[in-house]
Write a structure and sequence with these properties.
The complex is a heterodimer of chains A (232) and B (439). Helix content of chain A is 41%, strand content 20%. Chain A is α+β, with helices and mostly antiparallel strands and 232 residues long. Chain A folds into 2 domains: 139 residues, Jelly Rolls (Sandwich); 86 residues, Orthogonal Bundle (Arc Repressor Mutant, subunit A). In chain A, a hairpin with a 5-residue loop joins strand 9 and strand 10. In chain A, helix 5 crosses helix 6. The chains are: A alpha+beta (232), B alpha/beta (439).
């Protein structure tokens, strides 16, 4: 069980649709779990299907392709809802890219709550649609875009999502932020080599679109040009 | 006016949604053949998916589809779990190699499951097949279509939908066990248009018990007033020996053959007069709709959903009873949902019967497709084994012209197209039990 009143994402997560006493009921069903960087999130049960709220951190969602290759189908941030099935029987896996915390529920008990409380049911539907949207965008990003377009899209997404992680209202995207992922991890999620990622960062800086003030930090200097480069 | 030749219409014939037809399916074709066909799809092949949801909120008495009532959440959940297994098993063989251009959901009524279950299903399909850009179409029951469903369809980017309208006559609706007021259809249309559905189809039926010419005319005009982009006008097929639920219909009140012929013609003329273009023998489309464009360009094709502009190299059927179509193979999944589930839980694919298509089948299939799609058929690739004598009744009646190894149907031959196509069916040389009348 988890203490919802202290939860960092309580105002933005899917459970925000519930009244305080209803949320207390939900908290009985949920379990806070810490996932260390590189660790996959698994349930002890055999074919349990889980859903989760991301409370802290950044995680990647992936599936295994027919050739055994890992295909990234999304990156999630605090307050995101993971409604895809994951567990032992599923080909989906959820892996922490940085030390993360998630609040997990069995899909069955979460669905039962959603049936009982229409507000939660509606929020669940909206989040599941959002998640599908995210998966589609990610597939398009990996399927079509050049290395430059992928990096530009990813930096824009980070600047937006990391701003939301620290704030309750709809915040403006960050101008400067710490990269939660190292170059190798960025290469992995974007389907690029580490050399390509490093070269793209250097080029973006040389053409004045971004600055790299520290080893892990990025500043977006010319957002409009970066958006044009991302192509969406 | 279509000339009426009862002797050319009294032989029941297949609908030829495939050739060979489902009547030729045998149990010596199955999961291993499906696996080989999936593995044999070349890199870059364009593939369409058909996903069968065999549930409806109520079972209509006329319906010949593979359906059951959606009255148990557990039954729906176990079916969807099996379907996800099948998606994973099939995708594991083709994902990353083929391109999925279209995904069609049919049934049953895909909207008999909950919106969230549907979204999860779409998510699974798009992810497993890497099909982010696939065009999605859905068959819908207007009775279960509310604002929340419409919002979901809009957000999923569904561009094509088909509504089971059947008849707008409330008396006949009672007699066929499907009561849906015209206002609810109009509301469904408004919701779907608002959600961004660009191509909307209405299914209509003639030949229902107690249906008069006037009743059909009223239904067709009421449908036209709602301006669907496409209309499919089907003749009701009464086969109570095979479909037990049809025994609830009053057989004595069914229109006879000539009345059915007149109804087909009346509907046809009303739709043409309203600006629709005839597509094949029972579909209609507004001139700017993709189906009409395909018809004019000679790209129309026949498949399990009727007439289509789909140009995919293969069709993969997912779900109980669904059929997959490849160049060399047609194969069908287990029909009963329990057996379907059992096969997938055992770790295999769900195919249980089918037919291999040899070179002659494929050639005959092309000719039959041309005839049904309104194109002159090139017969040079076929053996002339008594073909002229089988065609003679139709050429004598002026319905078809055979010259220089080409067969062309004349302008009034539409109601005879299926019967003419049957002349090219190597499996249909004698009597045909179990099929429906051609009109």
């Amino acid at each position: 069980m988890s203490d919802c009143t202290q939860c960092a994402v309580r105002s933005r997560a899917v459970c925000a649709a519930l009244a305080p006493d209803e949320r207390a009921m939900l908290s009985q069903l949920g379990r806070m779990q810490t996932v260390k960087r590189g660790q996959a999130l698994l349930w002890e049960g055999d074919d349990a299907l889980l859903v989760a709220n991301v409370v802290e951190g950044v995680l990647k969602l992936s599936t295994a392709t027919s050739s055994g290759r890992e295909q990234i189908v999304g990156v999630v941030y605090p307050s995101d809802f993971i409604g895809r099935p994951f567990g032992r029987l599923s080909q989906h896996s959820v892996t922490a890219l940085v030390d993360s915390r998630v609040c997990i529920f069995s899909r069955q008990s979460f669905d039962a709550m959603a049936r009982e409380f229409p507000g939660l049911g509606h929020a669940l539907l909206t989040r599941t649609l959002d998640e599908l949207d995210r998966a589609r965008r990610w597939m398009l990003l990996l399927g079509r875009k050049s290395a430059g377009e992928r990096i530009a899209s990813f930096l824009l997404e980070l600047s937006q999502r990391l701003a939301e992680a620290n704030c309750t209202a709809d915040p403006a995207p960050l101008r400067e932020f710490e990269l939660p992922l190292d170059r190798q991890q960025i290469a992995d999620v974007l389907g690029l080599t580490i050399e390509t990622v490093s070269r793209q960062f250097t080029q973006l800086r040389a053409s004045g679109l971004i600055d790299l003030p520290g080893r892990r930090s990025v500043a977006i200097v010319d957002r409009a040009a970066l958006e044009a480069m991302a192509g969406d | 006016m279509w000339p009426y030749f009862p002797h050319l219409l009294n032989r029941p014939v297949p609908r030829y949604t495939s050739y060979p037809t489902a009547a030729e399916f045998r149990a010596d074709v199955g999961a291993a053949d499906l696996a080989a066909a999936l593995d044999g799809l070349p890199a870059g092949a364009l593939v369409s998916l058909y996903v069968h949801i065999p549930f409806c909120r109520d079972i209509c008495w006329y319906c010949g589809c593979n359906t059951e009532r959606a009255n148990s959440r557990r039954r729906l959940e176990t079916y969807l779990a099996a379907l996800e297994r099948e998606i994973d098993a099939v995708a594991a063989r083709v994902s990353g190699r083929v391109r999925v251009g279209r995904i069609a959901f049919g049934g049953g009524s895909p909207n008999a499951i909950s919106p969230i279950a549907f979204v999860r299903l779409v998510d699974r399909l798009l992810t497993a097949f890497s099909a982010a850009n696939a065009e999605i179409s859905v068959e819908l029951d207007p009775r279960g279509l509310d604002a929340s469903w419409a919002a979901v369809l809009g957000k999923l980017g569904v561009t094509r939908a088909s509504l089971g309208v059947q008849t707008l006559d409330s008396g006949i609706q009672q007699r066929i066990g499907r009561v849906q007021p015209a206002e609810s259809i109009a509301q469904s249309v408004a919701l779907l248009r608002g959600a961004g559905v660009r191509s909307l189809n209405f299914d209509l039926i003639y030949g229902l018990p107690g249906q008069t010419m006037a009743a059909l005319e009223d239904s067709v005009q009421a449908a036209i007033a709602m301006r669907p982009d496409r209309v499919a006008l089907f003749g009701y097929a009464h086969v109570p020996d095979r479909i037990a639920r049809q025994r609830r219909l009053e057989a004595a009140a069914l229109p006879g053959q000539q009345a059915r012929f007149d109804m087909a013609q009346q509907g046809h003329q009303a739709l043409l007069a309203a600006g629709y273009m005839a597509i094949g023998f029972d579909h209609f489309a507004l001139p700017e709709d993709a189906l009409a464009v395909a018809m004019r360009a000679g790209r129309l094709r026949r498949n399990f959903q009727g007439f289509t502009d789909d140009n995919a190299d293969a069709l993969i059927g997912l779900g109980a009873s669904s059929i997959s179509l490849f160049d060399h193979l047609i194969v069908q999944n287990e029909r009963a949902s329990g057996l379907y589930r059992a096969r997938l839980e055992a770790g295999g694919l769900a195919a249980m019967q089918g037919v291999r298509r040899d070179a002659e089948d494929r050639e005959r299939g092309l000719v039959i497709g041309d005839i049904l799609c309104g194109r002159p058929a090139d017969l040079t690739g076929l053996p002339f084994d008594g073909l002229e004598s089988r065609l003679k009744p139709f050429t004598d009646a002026g319905l078809a012209v055979l010259a220089a190894d080409r067969l062309r149907l004349t302008a009034d031959a539409l109601p005879y197209a299926r019967a003419i196509a049957a002349c090219f069916d190597r499996y249909r040389t004698g009597a045909m039990a179990g099929f429906s009348a051609p009109v």
